[in-house]
Amino acid sequence: MGMKVECLVCLKETTIPKNINTEKYDGQITCRECGALLQVKLVKSKVEQCKVVMDGKTRLSPEKAGESLKQAKGERRFYLEDKS
Ligand SMILES: [Zn+2]
């Protein structure tokens, strides 16, 4: 059962990665739609707090697209390692 959070930048729902404990989480997630970095606080599968850390659009500007993609991948790996 994936929990979803509404992205404050693109206003689309993004699924919270399975490795994140939605019962108690205070950290960052990346929006799958626009790539924005969001700071979220989850308590008992509910969003207590959500704010934008970095707007995905600025990072995904054409000249930096390749770089941002690499960065996004690195972040995702970081989350996985962080949880275990
Ligand atoms: Zn978004």
Main pleated sheet: 3 strands, antiparallel
Mean pLDDT figure: 81
N-to-C SSE string, H for helix and E for strand? EEEEEHH
State the helical fraction. Answer: 25-40%
Q: Order of strands across the widest beta sheet?
A: 3-4-5
Question: Could you explain how this protein is built, in words?
Answer:
The protein has 84 residues and is α+β, with helices and mostly antiparallel strands. The chain has one domain. Helix content is 27%, strand content 35%. The radius of gyration is 13 Å and the shape is globular. Zinc ion binds at residues 7, 9-10, 12, 31, 33-34, 36, 56.
Main attributes?
84 residues; alpha+beta; three-stranded antiparallel sheet; two-stranded antiparallel ribbon; 35% strand; binds zinc ion
Brief sketch in words of this structure:
By secondary structure, the chain is α+β, with helices and mostly antiparallel strands.
What is the fold's blueprint, element by element?
Elements: E1 4-6, E2 13-15, E3 24-30, E4 37-43, E5 46-54, H1 56-59, H2 65-83
Antiparallel strand pairs: 1-2, 3-4, 4-5
Bound molecules: zinc ion.
